[in-house]
Specification:
By secondary structure, the chain is of the alpha/beta class. The protein is about 40% helix and about 20% strand. It is globular. Keywords: Phosphoprotein.
Length: about 120
């Protein structure tokens, strides 16, 4: 019997990037839940029980740091891996993201998609 697909919840308000990440993780065998809206993340998480989150920080309807706080405040997701994928590359932003409970922080312009895929796979093993 094949192993169940790992679920990934991607929060990204740039539609092109969201489609790119969704397509790639689907190709890699993940069950992808996607949203461009930060205000629905916890509802989607409760409905789908993702194995990992990818969160952008700068969202049109919210702040990714607040989403991470909400994820970590929920007992069901306290230990679920979180990967930040953002254009914010200042050291203080990276430190804040990691301090709030993210497992990894990638600056979009400095990171290849394969590196993100490899990291996500490692975190859900």
């Amino acid at each position: 019997m094949p192993a169940a697909k790992k679920k990934i919840l991607i929060v990204e308000d740039d539609v092109f990037s969201l489609r790119l990440y969704s397509s790639r993780f689907t190709q890699e065998g993940f069950d992808v839940i996607e949203t461009p809206e930060g205000n629905v993340v916890m509802r989607l998480a409760e409905q789908n029980k993702p194995d990992i989150f990818i969160v952008d920080i700068m969202l049109q309807d919210g702040n990714g740091f607040e989403i991470i706080k909400d994820i970590r405040a929920d007992a069901a997701f306290k230990k679920t891996p979180i990967v930040i994928l953002s254009n914010l590359g200042q050291e203080r932003d990276i430190e804040e993201g990691l301090h709030l409970g993210a497992n990894e922080y990638f600056v979009k312009s400095n990171t290849r998609l394969q590196e993100i895929v490899d990291t996500v796979k490692r975190l859900v093993e």
